[in-house]
Write a structure and sequence with these properties.
Elements: H1 3-68, H2 81-103
Length: about 100
């Protein structure tokens, strides 16, 4: 093999390696940007989650105070036993949905 042939071969290999390095650097930069965007979204969702937890806490506090003071939350005895049970079941379903969304 002649010297120029070896030189050309090594030069071609070096060029191919440079292209691969450039590709991996670009891919790494893209992944860093995507990771940063996801981290920003996590921070935003955590803030939103904290705000929702605060609202839940405030509502629970109001409900506890109302129950403690003997106030009827529904404004009177307008519901029969079946309606109260249905309402109770619906509230439990909604609580389960909220809990599921908060945990996911």
């Amino acid at each position: 093999m002649s010297e120029t042939s070896k030189y050309d071969l090594f030069n071609d290999e070096l060029t191919a390696l440079e292209k691969q390095i450039y590709y991996f650097l670009q891919k790494g930069n893209d992944l860093i940007e995507a990771n940063q965007a996801l981290n920003n979204r996590i921070v935003l969702l955590e803030k939103e989650n904290d705000a929702l937890k605060k609202k839940i806490s405030e509502i629970e506090s109001k409900v506890s105070k109302s129950i403690f003071n003997g106030e009827n939350l529904l404004g009177g005895e307008n519901f029969n036993l079946e309606e109260k049970e249905a309402l109770k079941n619906k509230i439990n379903e909604l609580i389960a949905k909220i809990d599921y969304h908060l945990r996911s």
